[in-house]
């Protein structure tokens, strides 16, 4: 009889993380599907939701096999399907595009860290599913004229090589034009911050706790500030920037569709992802002034993220991820018996 080897720390982290992410996404999409009015967007959300529920069964099975407790995650108690419509159909569609983009990135990382065949196959299937949904969501957005496409740049006529040290500078004197990869990262970071600010605007309108509401309002200002900084760099090179998205939030400010716990988890999750993308942007950037912006702004959202974690801990909302046993604590416990 073949006995499966235990999950590695990397595999367990990815499985546990995916279960938690699927849990909150299922809750949010469950609300979206009740409020979406456009037939195509509603159909897309329905397909993603059904697939997510099946994929979550996989992570639950892996955790049970490891005899690891199944996370509480998010339940029906965290969603009020009867609450008024908080976001427009376009927001729901843009959310699906961003959701599938991030899910493909996460699945790719999980595949690279998987050594057990069944885990490798599971995340490979996950990638394929999200890849299909990403294409579908993008095509729907394009057909409806709401797909935000990165800018194009003129084609070069010949191969060239860097000849001057000022290729790296940017604080003083002449600044070289942006590289394609720098444009791509700036544009994507603007898109994520715009959608993030939109999400927080909606959440802040319905949050019950004053502490949570103030945290969300602070996040809106941070996101808008980052959008302005990145936009100034693009505009300085005559490159168009993505438009704002305040119009994707309704005027609902009464009954909340989501618990404060869910909204805080969602907000802190966006921050964590933002930190990762800023790190990637730094690694592919060569102009010092832009790298300095990313470094400074990363420090700002790290502090904001810590404040969010403290709110989650204070309210008993943060579930502890899998961790190594505390040998010192075990020894103390045994010694006390």
Note down, in words, how this protein is organized.
With 337 residues, the chain is mainly alpha-helical. The protein has two domains: 141 residues, Ferritin, core subunit, four-helix bundle (Ferritin); 152 residues, Ferritin, core subunit, four-helix bundle (Ferritin, Up-down Bundle). Helices cover 65% and strands 0% of the residues. The protein has nine helices and no strands. Helix 1 packs antiparallel against helix 2 and helix 2 packs antiparallel against helix 4. It is globular and about 65 Å long. The model has no long low-confidence stretch (mean pLDDT 91). Keywords: Membrane, Transmembrane, Transmembrane helix. It holds the Pfam family DUF3231. It comes from Oceanobacillus bengalensis. InterPro entries: DUF3231, Ferritin-like. This is DUF3231 family protein.
Quick gist of this model?
The protein is an all-alpha fold.
Do you know the CATH topology of the largest domain? Ferritin
How much of the sequence lies in strands comes to under 5%
- Tally the helices: 9
Outline, from the CA principal axes?
Answer: globular
Main beta sheet: none
Mean pLDDT: 91
Distance, first to last CA:
40 Å
- Elements, N to C (H/E): HHHHHHHHH
The CATH superfamily of the largest domain appears as: Ferritin, core subunit, four-helix bundle
At the first level of CATH, the class of the largest domain is: Mainly Alpha
- Structural class of the secondary elements? mainly alpha
Number of extended strands: 0
At CATH level 2, the architecture of the largest domain is: Up-down Bundle
């Amino acid at each position: 009889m073949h006995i499966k080897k235990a999950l590695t720390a990397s595999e367990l982290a990815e499985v546990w993380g995916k279960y938690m992410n699927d849990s909150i996404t299922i809750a949010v999409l469950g609300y979206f599907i009740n409020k979406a009015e456009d037939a195509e967007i509603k159909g897309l959300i329905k397909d993603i939701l059904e697939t997510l529920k099946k994929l979550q069964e996989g992570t639950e099975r892996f955790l049970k096999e490891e005899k690891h407790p199944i996370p509480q995650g998010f339940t029906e108690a965290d969603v009020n399907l009867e609450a008024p419509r908080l976001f427009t159909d376009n927001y729901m569609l843009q959310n699906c595009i961003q959701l599938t983009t991030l899910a493909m990135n996460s699945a790719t990382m999980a595949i690279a860290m998987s050594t057990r065949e069944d885990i490798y196959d599971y995340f490979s299937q996950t990638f394929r599913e999200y890849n299909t949904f990403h294409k579908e969501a993008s095509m729907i957005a394009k057909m409806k004229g709401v797909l935000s496409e990165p800018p194009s740049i003129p084609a070069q006529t010949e191969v060239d090589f860097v000849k001057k040290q000022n290729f790296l500078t940017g604080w003083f004197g002449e600044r070289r034009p942006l590289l394609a990869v720098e444009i791509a990262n700036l544009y994507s970071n603007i898109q994520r911050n715009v959608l993030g600010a939109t999400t927080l605007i909606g959440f802040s309108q319905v949050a019950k706790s004053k502490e949570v509401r103030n945290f969300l309002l602070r996040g809106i200002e941070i996101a808008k500030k980052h959008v302005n900084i990145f936009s100034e760099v693009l505009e300085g090179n005559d490159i168009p920037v993505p438009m704002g998205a305040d119009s994707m939030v309704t005027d609902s400010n009464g009954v909340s569709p989501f618990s404060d716990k869910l909204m805080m988890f969602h907000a802190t999750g966006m921050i964590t992802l933002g930190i990762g993308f800023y790190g990637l942007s730094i690694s592919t950037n060569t102009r010092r002034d832009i790298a300095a912006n990313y470094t400074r702004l990363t420090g700002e959202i790290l502090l904001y993220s810590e404040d969010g974690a403290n709110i989650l801990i204070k309210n008993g909302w943060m579930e502890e991820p899998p961790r190594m046993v505390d040998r010192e604590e075990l020894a103390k416990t045994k010694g006390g018996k």
